[in-house]
Amino acid sequence: MLNLLLLTFISQGGCLPSKSLYEENTDYVQILTQETFKETLERPEEANQFWIVEFYASWCGHCVHFAPTIKEFAEEIKDWTKLVKLGVIDCGNSENGEICQENQVHGFPTMKYYLPNDRLYDQKENLIEARTIEALKQETLKLALEHNVPNANGLGRFLYLENIGAASVRNVVEQNSKDNVLTALVAAPSDLALKDGTAIDLLADLTAFSDISIRLTDVASAEKWSESKEPVVLILDHDAVKMKIELNDITSRSDVLAVLSSTLTTEKTSWKNVVKKSVIIEASDHTDDSWEKYDQSKVYLQDVESALLQLLFYDVNSFPLDGDSLNAIKKYVKIVSQLYPSTTRNIDVDLRNLSSLLEDSKISRVKKRKDWIGLLDKAGLTKLQGSQPDLSYAACKPSVENLRGYTCGLWTSFHLFLSLSPDEQAPLFVEAMSEMILNHFSCLECRKNFKNEIELFPLSDVSDHSSGVRWLWKLHNSVNARIAGEKSEDPKFPKIQFPSNEECALCKTADDFEIAETLKYLDFHYSKENLVLADGEKIIDNSRMEDDPDEIVEAIVDKPKSHKGLVWFFLVVSLIASMGLWRSYRIRTRLKRHYRKISHQL
Protein backbone atom coordinates (compact mmCIF):
# COMPACT_ATOMS: atom_id res chain seq x y z
CA MET A 1 0.00 0.00 0.00
CA LEU A 2 0.97 3.64 -0.29
CA ASN A 3 2.08 4.01 3.30
CA LEU A 4 4.73 1.40 2.41
CA LEU A 5 5.49 3.39 -0.74
CA LEU A 6 5.94 6.58 1.27
CA LEU A 7 8.21 4.86 3.74
CA THR A 8 10.25 3.60 0.79
CA PHE A 9 10.48 7.16 -0.59
CA ILE A 10 11.86 8.41 2.69
CA SER A 11 14.26 5.51 3.14
CA GLN A 12 15.55 6.23 -0.37
CA GLY A 13 16.00 9.89 0.42
CA GLY A 14 12.60 11.27 -0.58
CA CYS A 15 12.81 14.92 -1.49
CA LEU A 16 12.23 17.71 0.96
CA PRO A 17 9.72 20.49 0.15
CA SER A 18 10.73 22.17 -3.11
CA LYS A 19 13.08 25.13 -3.08
CA SER A 20 11.22 28.44 -3.10
CA LEU A 21 11.30 30.37 -6.37
CA TYR A 22 12.31 33.37 -4.28
CA GLU A 23 15.28 33.88 -2.00
CA GLU A 24 14.36 33.16 1.58
CA ASN A 25 14.37 36.16 3.94
CA THR A 26 14.46 38.67 1.10
CA ASP A 27 13.10 42.07 2.06
CA TYR A 28 11.64 42.82 -1.35
CA VAL A 29 9.27 39.84 -1.22
CA GLN A 30 8.15 38.50 2.15
CA ILE A 31 8.13 34.70 2.27
CA LEU A 32 4.92 33.45 3.92
CA THR A 33 4.12 29.94 5.19
CA GLN A 34 1.25 28.05 6.77
CA GLU A 35 2.45 29.19 10.20
CA THR A 36 3.29 32.81 9.38
CA PHE A 37 0.55 33.79 6.89
CA LYS A 38 -2.16 34.97 9.28
CA GLU A 39 0.32 35.88 11.99
CA THR A 40 2.03 38.31 9.60
CA LEU A 41 -1.08 39.85 8.03
CA GLU A 42 -2.86 40.22 11.37
CA ARG A 43 -0.04 41.73 13.44
CA PRO A 44 -1.19 44.99 15.13
CA GLU A 45 1.38 47.01 13.19
CA GLU A 46 0.02 45.50 9.94
CA ALA A 47 -3.64 46.26 10.67
CA ASN A 48 -3.53 49.40 8.53
CA GLN A 49 -1.50 47.74 5.77
CA PHE A 50 -2.55 46.85 2.22
CA TRP A 51 -1.13 43.44 1.19
CA ILE A 52 -0.71 41.65 -2.14
CA VAL A 53 0.15 37.94 -2.03
CA GLU A 54 1.20 35.62 -4.86
CA PHE A 55 0.18 31.99 -4.39
CA TYR A 56 2.36 29.76 -6.55
CA ALA A 57 3.56 26.18 -6.88
CA SER A 58 7.29 25.62 -7.16
CA TRP A 59 6.74 22.76 -9.64
CA CYS A 60 4.52 24.87 -11.94
CA GLY A 61 6.30 25.84 -15.15
CA HIS A 62 4.26 29.02 -15.58
CA CYS A 63 5.01 30.03 -11.99
CA VAL A 64 8.72 29.64 -12.80
CA HIS A 65 8.13 31.76 -15.90
CA PHE A 66 6.20 34.40 -13.92
CA ALA A 67 8.68 34.64 -11.03
CA PRO A 68 11.03 37.15 -12.77
CA THR A 69 8.03 39.46 -13.31
CA ILE A 70 7.19 39.31 -9.60
CA LYS A 71 10.82 40.01 -8.73
CA GLU A 72 10.94 43.07 -11.00
CA PHE A 73 7.57 44.23 -9.68
CA ALA A 74 8.93 43.90 -6.14
CA GLU A 75 12.00 45.93 -7.14
CA GLU A 76 9.78 48.62 -8.69
CA ILE A 77 7.60 49.03 -5.60
CA LYS A 78 10.29 48.51 -2.96
CA ASP A 79 9.78 52.12 -1.81
CA TRP A 80 6.00 51.71 -1.49
CA THR A 81 6.03 49.71 1.73
CA LYS A 82 4.06 52.39 3.58
CA LEU A 83 1.36 51.87 0.99
CA VAL A 84 1.53 48.17 0.08
CA LYS A 85 3.49 45.04 0.99
CA LEU A 86 4.14 42.06 -1.26
CA GLY A 87 4.20 38.48 -0.01
CA VAL A 88 4.58 35.07 -1.68
CA ILE A 89 3.64 31.57 -0.54
CA ASP A 90 4.55 28.23 -2.14
CA CYS A 91 1.41 26.10 -2.35
CA GLY A 92 3.52 23.40 -3.99
CA ASN A 93 5.02 22.82 -0.55
CA SER A 94 2.68 20.33 1.11
CA GLU A 95 3.10 22.08 4.46
CA ASN A 96 1.25 25.14 3.09
CA GLY A 97 -1.72 23.23 1.67
CA GLU A 98 -4.35 24.19 4.24
CA ILE A 99 -3.78 27.96 4.13
CA CYS A 100 -3.79 27.94 0.32
CA GLN A 101 -7.07 26.04 0.39
CA GLU A 102 -8.55 28.42 2.97
CA ASN A 103 -7.74 31.32 0.66
CA GLN A 104 -9.76 29.68 -2.14
CA VAL A 105 -6.69 29.20 -4.33
CA HIS A 106 -7.48 26.60 -6.97
CA GLY A 107 -4.73 27.24 -9.51
CA PHE A 108 -1.32 28.81 -9.92
CA PRO A 109 -0.09 31.44 -10.11
CA THR A 110 -2.86 33.32 -8.27
CA MET A 111 -2.52 36.86 -6.91
CA LYS A 112 -4.84 38.21 -4.23
CA TYR A 113 -5.07 41.48 -2.31
CA TYR A 114 -6.03 42.04 1.32
CA LEU A 115 -7.37 45.40 2.46
CA PRO A 116 -6.44 47.13 5.74
CA ASN A 117 -8.51 45.89 8.68
CA ASP A 118 -10.32 43.47 6.39
CA ARG A 119 -8.53 40.12 6.29
CA LEU A 120 -11.14 37.99 4.52
CA TYR A 121 -9.25 34.89 3.48
CA ASP A 122 -12.07 32.90 1.89
CA GLN A 123 -13.11 35.53 -0.67
CA LYS A 124 -12.96 34.68 -4.37
CA GLU A 125 -13.36 38.28 -5.56
CA ASN A 126 -10.11 39.80 -4.29
CA LEU A 127 -8.06 38.65 -7.29
CA ILE A 128 -5.40 40.60 -9.18
CA GLU A 129 -5.47 39.62 -12.83
CA ALA A 130 -2.53 41.74 -14.08
CA ARG A 131 0.51 39.81 -15.32
CA THR A 132 2.94 42.52 -16.50
CA ILE A 133 4.98 44.86 -14.32
CA GLU A 134 3.24 48.05 -15.46
CA ALA A 135 -0.20 46.45 -15.23
CA LEU A 136 0.58 45.18 -11.72
CA LYS A 137 1.64 48.67 -10.61
CA GLN A 138 -1.45 50.26 -12.14
CA GLU A 139 -3.80 47.73 -10.57
CA THR A 140 -2.09 48.10 -7.18
CA LEU A 141 -2.47 51.88 -7.20
CA LYS A 142 -6.00 51.65 -8.57
CA LEU A 143 -7.01 49.35 -5.71
CA ALA A 144 -5.31 51.62 -3.15
CA LEU A 145 -7.16 54.58 -4.65
CA GLU A 146 -10.55 52.86 -4.78
CA HIS A 147 -10.33 51.65 -1.20
CA ASN A 148 -8.73 54.85 0.15
CA VAL A 149 -5.75 52.96 1.55
CA PRO A 150 -3.80 55.22 3.95
CA ASN A 151 -0.11 55.18 4.76
CA ALA A 152 0.86 52.26 6.93
CA ASN A 153 1.56 54.76 9.73
CA GLY A 154 -2.07 55.85 9.62
CA LEU A 155 -1.34 59.55 9.03
CA GLY A 156 -3.52 59.55 5.94
CA ARG A 157 -1.46 62.28 4.28
CA PHE A 158 -1.10 60.47 0.97
CA LEU A 159 -3.83 62.13 -1.08
CA TYR A 160 -4.02 61.59 -4.81
CA LEU A 161 -7.73 61.39 -5.36
CA GLU A 162 -7.88 64.66 -7.29
CA ASN A 163 -5.82 67.67 -8.26
CA ILE A 164 -6.10 70.54 -5.81
CA GLY A 165 -6.11 74.23 -6.77
CA ALA A 166 -3.78 77.03 -5.64
CA ALA A 167 -5.88 78.08 -2.64
CA SER A 168 -6.05 74.52 -1.39
CA VAL A 169 -2.31 74.13 -1.87
CA ARG A 170 -1.68 77.20 0.31
CA ASN A 171 -3.94 75.86 3.05
CA VAL A 172 -2.29 72.44 2.94
CA VAL A 173 1.22 73.95 3.11
CA GLU A 174 0.36 76.14 6.08
CA GLN A 175 -1.31 73.32 7.98
CA ASN A 176 1.61 70.98 7.32
CA SER A 177 4.10 73.62 8.48
CA LYS A 178 2.21 73.96 11.77
CA ASP A 179 2.49 70.19 12.15
CA ASN A 180 6.24 70.38 11.44
CA VAL A 181 5.70 68.51 8.18
CA LEU A 182 7.05 69.41 4.75
CA THR A 183 4.88 69.40 1.63
CA ALA A 184 5.90 67.61 -1.54
CA LEU A 185 3.91 69.17 -4.35
CA VAL A 186 3.93 67.32 -7.65
CA ALA A 187 2.79 69.76 -10.32
CA ALA A 188 2.16 67.88 -13.53
CA PRO A 189 -0.51 67.22 -16.14
CA SER A 190 -2.54 64.13 -15.35
CA ASP A 191 -1.15 62.33 -18.39
CA LEU A 192 2.49 63.00 -17.48
CA ALA A 193 4.59 59.96 -18.23
CA LEU A 194 8.24 59.61 -17.33
CA LYS A 195 10.34 57.15 -19.22
CA ASP A 196 9.81 54.31 -16.75
CA GLY A 197 6.67 55.28 -14.92
CA THR A 198 3.95 57.84 -14.32
CA ALA A 199 3.29 60.75 -11.99
CA ILE A 200 1.13 58.46 -9.90
CA ASP A 201 4.08 56.07 -9.50
CA LEU A 202 6.20 58.97 -8.31
CA LEU A 203 3.62 59.82 -5.67
CA ALA A 204 3.77 56.24 -4.43
CA ASP A 205 7.58 56.43 -4.38
CA LEU A 206 7.44 59.55 -2.21
CA THR A 207 5.65 57.65 0.55
CA ALA A 208 9.06 56.26 1.48
CA PHE A 209 9.88 59.65 3.05
CA SER A 210 8.68 60.22 6.59
CA ASP A 211 7.20 63.50 7.84
CA ILE A 212 6.24 64.65 4.38
CA SER A 213 2.79 65.31 2.97
CA ILE A 214 2.35 64.59 -0.72
CA ARG A 215 -0.08 66.41 -3.01
CA LEU A 216 -0.74 66.35 -6.73
CA THR A 217 -1.78 69.51 -8.52
CA ASP A 218 -1.69 70.96 -12.01
CA VAL A 219 1.09 73.14 -13.36
CA ALA A 220 -0.98 76.35 -13.30
CA SER A 221 -1.92 75.99 -9.64
CA ALA A 222 1.74 75.58 -8.67
CA GLU A 223 3.01 78.48 -10.80
CA LYS A 224 3.08 80.85 -7.80
CA TRP A 225 5.83 78.73 -6.24
CA SER A 226 7.46 77.14 -9.25
CA GLU A 227 7.61 80.28 -11.41
CA SER A 228 7.42 77.87 -14.29
CA LYS A 229 4.91 76.36 -16.65
CA GLU A 230 6.78 73.08 -16.71
CA PRO A 231 6.05 69.97 -14.60
CA VAL A 232 7.93 70.15 -11.30
CA VAL A 233 8.32 68.60 -7.89
CA LEU A 234 8.41 71.24 -5.14
CA ILE A 235 9.36 70.77 -1.51
CA LEU A 236 7.62 73.52 0.47
CA ASP A 237 7.97 74.76 4.05
CA HIS A 238 5.50 77.57 4.77
CA ASP A 239 5.64 79.58 1.58
CA ALA A 240 9.32 78.92 1.00
CA VAL A 241 10.47 76.61 -1.76
CA LYS A 242 13.14 74.35 -0.28
CA MET A 243 13.74 72.38 -3.43
CA LYS A 244 12.58 72.45 -7.04
CA ILE A 245 13.05 69.64 -9.55
CA GLU A 246 12.09 70.11 -13.20
CA LEU A 247 10.52 66.83 -14.26
CA ASN A 248 11.40 67.39 -17.90
CA ASP A 249 15.09 67.44 -16.98
CA ILE A 250 15.14 63.98 -15.45
CA THR A 251 15.30 60.61 -17.13
CA SER A 252 13.56 58.44 -14.57
CA ARG A 253 11.73 58.34 -11.26
CA SER A 254 14.89 56.97 -9.67
CA ASP A 255 16.63 60.26 -10.54
CA VAL A 256 13.92 62.22 -8.72
CA LEU A 257 14.23 60.01 -5.67
CA ALA A 258 18.02 60.29 -5.67
CA VAL A 259 17.82 64.09 -5.64
CA LEU A 260 15.11 64.11 -2.99
CA SER A 261 17.09 61.70 -0.84
CA SER A 262 20.28 63.75 -0.97
CA THR A 263 18.41 66.98 -0.24
CA LEU A 264 15.85 65.92 2.31
CA THR A 265 18.31 64.19 4.60
CA THR A 266 19.52 67.69 5.57
CA GLU A 267 15.97 68.92 6.07
CA LYS A 268 13.32 67.68 8.48
CA THR A 269 12.97 64.41 6.63
CA SER A 270 15.31 61.46 6.64
CA TRP A 271 15.43 58.84 3.94
CA LYS A 272 14.31 55.59 5.49
CA ASN A 273 15.79 52.51 3.98
CA VAL A 274 12.53 50.65 4.35
CA VAL A 275 13.87 47.67 2.45
CA LYS A 276 17.38 46.37 2.01
CA LYS A 277 18.46 44.98 -1.32
CA SER A 278 18.72 41.24 -1.31
CA VAL A 279 19.67 38.94 -4.15
CA ILE A 280 16.78 36.83 -5.40
CA ILE A 281 18.25 33.57 -6.62
CA GLU A 282 17.07 32.10 -9.89
CA ALA A 283 15.92 28.49 -9.81
CA SER A 284 18.74 27.55 -12.16
CA ASP A 285 21.28 28.22 -9.39
CA HIS A 286 20.22 25.06 -7.55
CA THR A 287 21.56 22.08 -9.47
CA ASP A 288 21.40 18.37 -8.70
CA ASP A 289 23.28 15.62 -10.52
CA SER A 290 21.58 12.63 -8.84
CA TRP A 291 19.34 12.25 -11.93
CA GLU A 292 22.31 10.76 -13.78
CA LYS A 293 21.98 7.38 -12.07
CA TYR A 294 18.62 6.69 -13.72
CA ASP A 295 18.33 5.02 -17.12
CA GLN A 296 16.29 7.31 -19.37
CA SER A 297 15.51 4.40 -21.71
CA LYS A 298 13.40 2.85 -18.95
CA VAL A 299 10.05 3.81 -17.41
CA TYR A 300 10.15 3.94 -13.62
CA LEU A 301 6.93 3.10 -11.82
CA GLN A 302 8.19 5.38 -9.03
CA ASP A 303 7.60 8.37 -11.34
CA VAL A 304 4.04 7.23 -12.01
CA GLU A 305 3.38 6.64 -8.31
CA SER A 306 4.77 10.02 -7.24
CA ALA A 307 2.75 11.88 -9.87
CA LEU A 308 -0.38 9.98 -8.84
CA LEU A 309 0.19 10.89 -5.19
CA GLN A 310 0.73 14.55 -6.02
CA LEU A 311 -2.35 14.61 -8.23
CA LEU A 312 -4.66 13.04 -5.66
CA PHE A 313 -3.31 14.65 -2.51
CA TYR A 314 -2.48 18.15 -3.74
CA ASP A 315 -3.82 18.95 -7.21
CA VAL A 316 -7.37 17.98 -6.32
CA ASN A 317 -7.88 21.23 -4.41
CA SER A 318 -11.04 22.93 -5.70
CA PHE A 319 -13.62 22.33 -2.98
CA PRO A 320 -16.43 21.53 -2.71
CA LEU A 321 -16.16 18.69 -5.20
CA ASP A 322 -19.44 18.18 -7.00
CA GLY A 323 -20.91 18.08 -10.47
CA ASP A 324 -18.26 18.07 -13.21
CA SER A 325 -15.31 18.31 -10.79
CA LEU A 326 -16.38 15.20 -8.87
CA ASN A 327 -17.34 13.27 -12.00
CA ALA A 328 -13.92 14.01 -13.51
CA ILE A 329 -12.21 12.40 -10.51
CA LYS A 330 -14.57 9.42 -10.54
CA LYS A 331 -13.91 8.69 -14.20
CA TYR A 332 -10.15 9.09 -13.93
CA VAL A 333 -9.74 7.00 -10.78
CA LYS A 334 -11.98 4.26 -12.14
CA ILE A 335 -10.10 3.74 -15.40
CA VAL A 336 -6.64 4.19 -13.84
CA SER A 337 -7.55 1.58 -11.23
CA GLN A 338 -8.18 -0.86 -14.09
CA LEU A 339 -4.98 0.03 -16.00
CA TYR A 340 -2.50 0.48 -13.16
CA PRO A 341 0.07 -2.35 -13.14
CA SER A 342 -0.64 -4.84 -10.38
CA THR A 343 2.41 -5.16 -8.17
CA THR A 344 3.13 -6.50 -4.73
CA ARG A 345 2.54 -2.98 -3.38
CA ASN A 346 -1.17 -3.36 -4.25
CA ILE A 347 -1.59 0.29 -5.25
CA ASP A 348 -4.05 -0.84 -7.91
CA VAL A 349 -6.11 -2.38 -5.11
CA ASP A 350 -6.13 0.93 -3.22
CA LEU A 351 -7.24 2.72 -6.39
CA ARG A 352 -10.09 0.25 -6.89
CA ASN A 353 -11.09 0.80 -3.28
CA LEU A 354 -11.19 4.56 -3.91
CA SER A 355 -13.19 4.06 -7.10
CA SER A 356 -15.67 1.91 -5.21
CA LEU A 357 -16.03 4.57 -2.50
CA LEU A 358 -16.54 7.35 -5.06
CA GLU A 359 -19.20 5.34 -6.89
CA ASP A 360 -21.19 5.12 -3.65
CA SER A 361 -24.54 6.78 -4.34
CA LYS A 362 -24.29 8.58 -0.99
CA ILE A 363 -21.25 10.57 -2.16
CA SER A 364 -22.54 13.36 -4.40
CA ARG A 365 -20.44 16.13 -2.87
CA VAL A 366 -17.12 16.35 -1.03
CA LYS A 367 -17.34 19.57 0.96
CA LYS A 368 -13.83 20.10 2.32
CA ARG A 369 -10.26 19.01 1.69
CA LYS A 370 -10.17 17.05 4.94
CA ASP A 371 -13.17 15.01 3.74
CA TRP A 372 -11.31 14.19 0.52
CA ILE A 373 -8.19 13.17 2.45
CA GLY A 374 -10.46 10.99 4.59
CA LEU A 375 -11.63 9.14 1.47
CA LEU A 376 -8.05 8.62 0.32
CA ASP A 377 -7.18 7.30 3.76
CA LYS A 378 -10.18 4.98 3.87
CA ALA A 379 -9.26 3.59 0.45
CA GLY A 380 -5.76 2.75 1.67
CA LEU A 381 -3.99 5.63 -0.08
CA THR A 382 -2.67 6.72 3.28
CA LYS A 383 0.02 9.22 4.05
CA LEU A 384 2.28 9.15 7.10
CA GLN A 385 0.39 10.07 10.23
CA GLY A 386 0.71 13.75 11.04
CA SER A 387 2.75 14.65 7.95
CA GLN A 388 2.54 14.92 4.19
CA PRO A 389 4.18 12.47 1.77
CA ASP A 390 7.60 13.45 0.48
CA LEU A 391 7.56 12.76 -3.23
CA SER A 392 10.55 11.35 -5.04
CA TYR A 393 11.15 11.02 -8.77
CA ALA A 394 13.51 8.76 -10.72
CA ALA A 395 13.86 9.23 -14.50
CA CYS A 396 11.73 12.36 -14.04
CA LYS A 397 14.10 13.76 -11.42
CA PRO A 398 15.18 17.26 -12.50
CA SER A 399 18.73 18.49 -12.84
CA VAL A 400 17.52 21.85 -11.50
CA GLU A 401 15.13 22.23 -8.59
CA ASN A 402 11.49 23.05 -9.40
CA LEU A 403 11.70 21.80 -13.00
CA ARG A 404 10.24 18.56 -14.47
CA GLY A 405 9.33 16.18 -11.63
CA TYR A 406 5.55 16.30 -11.37
CA THR A 407 4.75 17.30 -14.95
CA CYS A 408 7.17 14.69 -16.30
CA GLY A 409 5.56 12.10 -14.03
CA LEU A 410 2.11 13.01 -15.35
CA TRP A 411 3.14 12.65 -18.99
CA THR A 412 4.81 9.32 -18.16
CA SER A 413 1.60 8.18 -16.45
CA PHE A 414 -0.58 9.17 -19.40
CA HIS A 415 1.64 7.37 -21.92
CA LEU A 416 1.88 4.26 -19.72
CA PHE A 417 -1.86 3.97 -19.08
CA LEU A 418 -2.73 4.57 -22.72
CA SER A 419 -0.18 2.01 -23.90
CA LEU A 420 -1.72 -0.50 -21.49
CA SER A 421 -5.25 0.29 -22.72
CA PRO A 422 -7.01 -2.26 -24.93
CA ASP A 423 -9.00 -0.94 -27.89
CA GLU A 424 -12.24 -0.39 -25.99
CA GLN A 425 -10.59 1.48 -23.10
CA ALA A 426 -8.37 3.90 -25.04
CA PRO A 427 -11.18 6.39 -25.87
CA LEU A 428 -12.40 6.20 -22.27
CA PHE A 429 -8.93 6.94 -20.92
CA VAL A 430 -8.23 10.02 -23.07
CA GLU A 431 -11.65 11.40 -22.15
CA ALA A 432 -11.07 10.82 -18.42
CA MET A 433 -7.52 12.23 -18.64
CA SER A 434 -8.73 15.38 -20.41
CA GLU A 435 -11.52 16.03 -17.93
CA MET A 436 -9.13 15.53 -15.02
CA ILE A 437 -6.69 18.09 -16.43
CA LEU A 438 -9.37 20.66 -17.28
CA ASN A 439 -10.99 20.38 -13.84
CA HIS A 440 -8.07 19.78 -11.49
CA PHE A 441 -4.62 20.51 -12.91
CA SER A 442 -3.66 23.55 -10.84
CA CYS A 443 -1.36 25.28 -13.35
CA LEU A 444 -3.90 27.76 -14.73
CA GLU A 445 -1.99 28.64 -17.89
CA CYS A 446 -1.34 24.94 -18.58
CA ARG A 447 -5.04 24.24 -18.24
CA LYS A 448 -5.89 26.98 -20.74
CA ASN A 449 -3.22 25.81 -23.16
CA PHE A 450 -4.38 22.19 -22.91
CA LYS A 451 -7.90 23.27 -23.82
CA ASN A 452 -6.49 24.94 -26.93
CA GLU A 453 -4.39 21.87 -27.75
CA ILE A 454 -7.32 19.45 -27.74
CA GLU A 455 -9.10 21.70 -30.20
CA LEU A 456 -6.21 20.93 -32.57
CA PHE A 457 -6.18 17.26 -31.56
CA PRO A 458 -9.84 16.40 -30.80
CA LEU A 459 -10.69 13.44 -28.59
CA SER A 460 -12.83 12.05 -31.39
CA ASP A 461 -9.58 11.09 -33.17
CA VAL A 462 -9.18 8.27 -30.64
CA SER A 463 -11.15 5.14 -31.53
CA ASP A 464 -8.84 2.33 -30.41
CA HIS A 465 -5.47 1.57 -28.82
CA SER A 466 -3.31 2.52 -31.79
CA SER A 467 -5.07 5.82 -32.50
CA GLY A 468 -4.92 6.66 -28.78
CA VAL A 469 -1.15 6.13 -28.55
CA ARG A 470 -0.69 8.21 -31.70
CA TRP A 471 -3.01 10.99 -30.43
CA LEU A 472 -1.14 11.40 -27.14
CA TRP A 473 2.26 11.31 -28.87
CA LYS A 474 1.23 14.10 -31.28
CA LEU A 475 -0.30 16.13 -28.45
CA HIS A 476 2.83 15.79 -26.29
CA ASN A 477 5.13 16.83 -29.13
CA SER A 478 2.90 19.82 -29.87
CA VAL A 479 3.26 20.94 -26.23
CA ASN A 480 7.02 20.40 -26.38
CA ALA A 481 7.28 22.57 -29.49
CA ARG A 482 5.32 25.36 -27.81
CA ILE A 483 7.30 25.52 -24.56
CA ALA A 484 10.79 24.69 -25.89
CA GLY A 485 13.34 27.21 -24.67
CA GLU A 486 11.18 28.68 -21.90
CA LYS A 487 12.44 29.28 -18.35
CA SER A 488 10.62 26.17 -17.16
CA GLU A 489 12.72 23.93 -19.43
CA ASP A 490 15.28 21.73 -17.69
CA PRO A 491 18.66 22.40 -19.37
CA LYS A 492 19.58 18.71 -19.19
CA PHE A 493 16.23 17.63 -20.66
CA PRO A 494 15.37 20.03 -23.50
CA LYS A 495 11.90 19.91 -25.01
CA ILE A 496 12.45 18.04 -28.27
CA GLN A 497 10.27 16.15 -30.71
CA PHE A 498 10.48 12.65 -29.28
CA PRO A 499 11.58 9.98 -29.71
CA SER A 500 15.05 11.20 -30.63
CA ASN A 501 17.33 9.35 -33.04
CA GLU A 502 19.26 8.02 -30.05
CA GLU A 503 16.06 6.61 -28.55
CA CYS A 504 14.73 5.13 -31.78
CA ALA A 505 16.88 5.09 -34.91
CA LEU A 506 14.07 3.62 -37.04
CA CYS A 507 11.44 6.15 -35.96
CA LYS A 508 12.59 9.03 -38.15
CA THR A 509 13.12 9.56 -41.83
CA ALA A 510 15.05 12.50 -43.21
CA ASP A 511 11.95 14.71 -43.14
CA ASP A 512 9.52 13.30 -40.61
CA PHE A 513 8.59 10.46 -38.27
CA GLU A 514 7.94 6.95 -39.51
CA ILE A 515 4.56 6.46 -37.85
CA ALA A 516 4.47 2.66 -37.78
CA GLU A 517 7.93 2.37 -36.23
CA THR A 518 7.19 5.19 -33.79
CA LEU A 519 4.05 3.47 -32.53
CA LYS A 520 5.99 0.20 -32.10
CA TYR A 521 8.62 2.07 -30.09
CA LEU A 522 6.03 3.78 -27.87
CA ASP A 523 4.21 0.52 -27.19
CA PHE A 524 7.45 -1.14 -26.14
CA HIS A 525 8.84 1.83 -24.18
CA TYR A 526 5.66 2.14 -22.11
CA SER A 527 5.11 -1.60 -21.70
CA LYS A 528 5.28 -3.66 -18.51
CA GLU A 529 8.44 -5.30 -19.86
CA ASN A 530 10.21 -1.92 -19.81
CA LEU A 531 8.99 -0.94 -16.34
CA VAL A 532 11.50 -0.52 -13.53
CA LEU A 533 10.04 -1.33 -10.12
CA ALA A 534 11.23 -0.50 -6.64
CA ASP A 535 13.55 -2.94 -4.87
CA GLY A 536 11.62 -6.06 -3.91
CA GLU A 537 8.52 -5.09 -5.91
CA LYS A 538 7.11 -7.58 -8.42
CA ILE A 539 4.45 -7.53 -11.12
CA ILE A 540 1.36 -9.64 -10.38
CA ASP A 541 -0.69 -11.10 -13.21
CA ASN A 542 -3.93 -9.14 -13.13
CA SER A 543 -5.57 -10.80 -16.10
CA ARG A 544 -8.35 -11.97 -13.77
CA MET A 545 -9.48 -8.34 -13.55
CA GLU A 546 -10.57 -8.50 -17.18
CA ASP A 547 -13.36 -10.99 -16.38
CA ASP A 548 -15.37 -9.31 -13.64
CA PRO A 549 -13.47 -6.48 -11.93
CA ASP A 550 -16.45 -5.36 -9.85
CA GLU A 551 -16.78 -8.72 -8.09
CA ILE A 552 -13.07 -8.78 -7.31
CA VAL A 553 -13.18 -5.19 -6.03
CA GLU A 554 -16.02 -6.08 -3.67
CA ALA A 555 -14.14 -9.13 -2.42
CA ILE A 556 -10.96 -7.12 -1.88
CA VAL A 557 -12.76 -4.27 -0.13
CA ASP A 558 -14.37 -6.70 2.31
CA LYS A 559 -11.06 -8.33 3.27
CA PRO A 560 -8.91 -6.88 6.08
CA LYS A 561 -5.82 -6.04 4.01
CA SER A 562 -3.42 -5.86 6.92
CA HIS A 563 -3.91 -9.64 7.62
CA LYS A 564 -4.01 -10.82 4.02
CA GLY A 565 -0.58 -12.48 4.15
CA LEU A 566 -1.40 -14.38 7.34
CA VAL A 567 -4.76 -15.52 5.95
CA TRP A 568 -3.11 -16.99 2.86
CA PHE A 569 -0.40 -18.63 5.01
CA PHE A 570 -2.92 -20.39 7.27
CA LEU A 571 -5.08 -21.40 4.29
CA VAL A 572 -2.11 -23.07 2.61
CA VAL A 573 -0.98 -24.76 5.85
CA SER A 574 -4.53 -25.96 6.54
CA LEU A 575 -4.86 -27.29 3.00
CA ILE A 576 -1.57 -29.22 3.26
CA ALA A 577 -2.55 -30.60 6.66
CA SER A 578 -5.97 -31.63 5.39
CA MET A 579 -4.44 -33.39 2.42
CA GLY A 580 -2.08 -35.23 4.77
CA LEU A 581 -4.89 -36.30 7.06
CA TRP A 582 -6.97 -37.43 4.10
CA ARG A 583 -4.11 -39.51 2.71
CA SER A 584 -3.48 -41.02 6.15
CA TYR A 585 -7.15 -41.86 6.47
CA ARG A 586 -7.22 -43.48 3.04
CA ILE A 587 -4.12 -45.60 3.83
CA ARG A 588 -5.53 -46.76 7.17
CA THR A 589 -8.81 -47.69 5.52
CA ARG A 590 -7.08 -49.71 2.83
CA LEU A 591 -4.92 -51.53 5.42
CA LYS A 592 -7.97 -52.45 7.48
CA ARG A 593 -9.71 -53.86 4.43
CA HIS A 594 -6.56 -55.79 3.52
CA TYR A 595 -6.22 -57.33 6.98
CA ARG A 596 -9.92 -58.22 7.11
CA LYS A 597 -9.58 -59.99 3.79
CA ILE A 598 -6.59 -61.97 5.03
CA SER A 599 -8.34 -62.94 8.26
CA HIS A 600 -11.34 -64.25 6.31
CA GLN A 601 -9.05 -66.32 4.15
CA LEU A 602 -7.43 -67.78 7.22
TrEMBL record:
Cited InterPro entries: ERV/ALR_sulphydryl_oxid_sf, ERV/ALR_sulphydryl_oxidase, QSOX_FAD-bd_dom, QSOX_FAD-bd_sf, Sulfhydryl_oxidase, Thioredoxin-like_sf, Thioredoxin_CS, Thioredoxin_domain
Domain ERV/ALR sulfhydryl oxidase: 399-497
Cofactors demanded by this protein: FAD
Residue intervals passing through the bilayer: 566-585
Protein EC: 1.8.3.2
Keyword DNA-binding applies: no
Residues annotated as signal peptide: 1-15
Enzyme class: oxidoreductase
Domain Thioredoxin: 10-146
One GO term describing the cellular component: extracellular space
Superkingdom of source: Eukaryota
Keyword Oxidoreductase: yes
One GO-annotated biological process of the protein: protein folding
Catalysed reactions, as listed in the record: 2 R'C(R)SH + O2 = R'C(R)S-S(R)CR' + H2O2
Homology family: Belongs to the quiescin-sulfhydryl oxidase (QSOX) family.
Protein name, entry field: Sulfhydryl oxidase
